[in-house]
């Protein structure tokens, strides 16, 4: 029985090291569809827009995604920026080498840089303007998340944002029902509802940011059962 009282720390199948890549690729393709049609990409673009709206952008905005998977979020940003004549330099980091190879092989990602690495091992010579993660934070425990928040603050000059899941019974049973009916990926069918149980409540974010010693941030609830967390870091450090 699902309960939203506490986060689950049960590992998702996708976090295993022995999943065949054809199954991971199928999973990424379905997640890209979900992101497009349930508003995930729109939330990511909203995060970028909130962090650049205060600035007169003349130089290319350097944006880095932690846990980029197949690069669909970065591609959505690229399309949005191109339509608005906003110059961007986009970078994706992922620990899974096959994900990076897949993302790099897509023609629409030709102008995006991809790095195969644990993000914690990537040390930039200078801060990037914006760091973000989408459906990445829920893969980590609280201690790892606090370290991630500190990393994102340290390495962003404009700020950072997080697009992740709201742990809620409606979200859990809705995605469980939808994926059982429409998904053909065993990874999606297993991991989608589990991801919700590993997601966050507003109280969780309050706790995590307090532990990270970040006092100023904004949290917004977004459809469909997502959080958009934004932090402005301009003038810090």
From TrEMBL:
<dbReference type="InterPro" id="IPR029063">
    <property type="entry name" value="SAM-dependent_MTases_sf"/>
</dbReference>
<dbReference type="InterPro" id="IPR041698">
    <property type="entry name" value="Methyltransf_25"/>
</dbReference>
<dbReference type="GO" id="GO:0008168">
    <property type="term" value="F:methyltransferase activity"/>
</dbReference>
<keyword id="KW-0808">Transferase</keyword>
<dbReference type="Pfam" id="PF13649">
    <property type="entry name" value="Methyltransf_25"/>
</dbReference>
<keyword id="KW-0489">Methyltransferase</keyword>
<feature type="domain" description="Methyltransferase">
    <location>
        <begin position="63"/>
        <end position="152"/>
    </location>
</feature>
<protein>
    <submittedName>
        <fullName>Methyltransferase domain-containing protein</fullName>
    </submittedName>
</protein>
<dbReference type="GO" id="GO:0032259">
    <property type="term" value="P:methylation"/>
</dbReference>
């Amino acid at each position: 029985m699902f309960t939203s009282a506490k986060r689950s720390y049960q590992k998702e199948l996708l976090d295993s090291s022995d999943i065949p890549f054809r199954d991971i690729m199928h999973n990424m393709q379905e997640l890209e569809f979900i992101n497009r049609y349930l508003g995930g990409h729109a939330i990511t673009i909203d995060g970028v827009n909130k962090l650049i709206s205060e600035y007169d952008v003349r130089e290319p905005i350097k944006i880095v995604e932690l846990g980029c998977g197949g690069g669909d979020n970065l591609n959505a940003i690229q399309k949005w920026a191109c339509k608005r004549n906003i110059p961007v330099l986009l970078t994706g980091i992922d620990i899974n080498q096959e994900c990076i190879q897949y993302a790099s092989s897509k023609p629409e990602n030709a102008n995006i840089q991809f790095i195969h690495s644990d993000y914690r091992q990537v040390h930039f010579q200078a801060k990037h303007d914006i760091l973000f993660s989408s459906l990445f934070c829920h893969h980590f425990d609280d201690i790892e998340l606090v370290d991630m928040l500190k990393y994102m603050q340290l390495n962003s000059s404009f700020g950072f944002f997080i697009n992740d899941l709201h742990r809620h019974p409606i979200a859990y049973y809705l995605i469980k029902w939808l994926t059982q009916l429409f998904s053909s990926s065993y990874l999606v069918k297993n991991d989608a509802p589990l991801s919700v149980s590993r997601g966050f409540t507003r109280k969780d974010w309050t706790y995590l940011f307090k532990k990270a010693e970040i006092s100023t941030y904004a949290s917004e609830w977004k459809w469909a059962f997502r959080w958009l967390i934004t932090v402005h870091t301009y003038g810090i450090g």
